[in-house]
Amino acid sequence: MTPVPTTDTSPVVSNTTHKYDVLEDYDGHYRFAPIEESQVSRAMIKRYFNTMYERAISDVVIVGAGSAGLTCAWYLAHTRPELKITIIEANVAPGGGAWLGGQLMSPMVIRKPADGFLRQLGVPYEDEGAFVVVKHAALFTSTLLSQVLAMPNVVLMNATAVEDLIIHQDFRGLQRVAGVVTNWTLVALNHDTQSCMDPNTITAPIIVSATGHDGPMGAFSAKRLVSAGLTKELGNMRGLDMNRAEPAIVNNTREVVPGLIFTGMELSEHDGSNRMGPTFGAMIASGIKAAHVASKILDS
Ligand code: 48N
Predict the structure, then answer these.
(1) DSSP designation for 23
(2) Quick check: CB of 277 below 6 Å from ligand 1?
(3) CA of 51 relative to ligand 1 center, distance in Å
(4) What is the pTM of this model?
(5) What are the structural domains, with CATH classification, of the chain?
(6) 62, 68 contact by CB (below 8 A)
(7) Per-residue pLDDT of the chain (300 residues; tens, 9 = 90+)
(8) Which ligand 1 atom lies nearest to the CA of residue 276?
(9) How far apart are alpha carbons 88 and 182 in whole angstroms?
(10) CA-to-CA distance for 95 and 66, rounded, in angstroms?
């Protein structure tokens, strides 16, 4: 019997006094519908491996589910609903560095005019003139994440690392990035403890890499371009200068080699531009820019 997906998310109103009460009974008689353990496993296996099979060929792969990668996904998913967008995130928890504002403090600063995206998401904020403050960075990231994951053309594969790039030579002899090489992150981090843990692949005409500037695999694609000889050397992120850093990342978001777009802090590592510290407007604006660049390339 194929379960009919329920879209009704209105709270279960039972005959108790609280309209948000979902427990029918508080007197020790609460019952679940009966289930076989195999049904739970098969429900997950069928969907997960169907997704892997179906997304082995994607239209756009976004590497890194931080604020830049997720904003890019949000824009592409809304403006190009026909595209198969696959997000690969190495951590179990997506969101990257956007769960806190800075120095482990929770408020998140977003400089204008990037605050316009908060109004598109419906995230409340306090206006401080040149910038706005979201009361908790997790409010921004969880709202963005929930809206990205609700989009029918988006798939998130978390706890999955991109551990190499697929690089083809086109008919002119030009090297083109044509996809990513993936493995479960725990496998990718343990290649030196086991042998022959070969990876998997996802091919796509466009890869948007937003793997950030630090963390266990930060700036992954930028470093791989250097080791693969497609980029001479890493620019390495420069010292903090908010007023130079944020416009540079937004204005320089681009296709750095055919098929590969850099955005967010990975771009600062590739180009050697300044860092901006705990202000997130450039992550939003560069993610939007990356979505536009990807869209234009796909239409060309
Ligand atoms: O949040 P991040 O690190 O990266 P961005 O560019 O989205 O946002 C950067 C921002 O949080 C800052 O660093 C702020 C503005 N600070 C600036 C400063 O000056 O200090 O997200 C990157 C994501 C993470 O979730 C990683 O786990 C993931 O990318 N990731 C990968 N996922 C799959 N495969 C990989 N090889 C990989 N490497 C990183």
Answers:
(1) -
(2) yes
(3) 24
(4) 0.93
(5) 58-299 (3.50.50.60)
(6) no
(7) 454 555 565 555 445 556 777 776 778 888 889 999 999 999 999 999 999 999 999 999 999 999 999 999 999 999 999 999 999 999 999 999 999 999 999 999 999 999 999 999 999 999 999 999 999 999 999 999 999 999 999 999 999 999 999 999 988 889 999 999 999 999 999 988 988 889 999 999 999 999 999 777 899 999 999 999 999 999 999 999 999 999 999 999 999 999 999 999 999 999 999 999 999 999 999 999 999 999 999 999
(8) 19
(9) 8
(10) 4
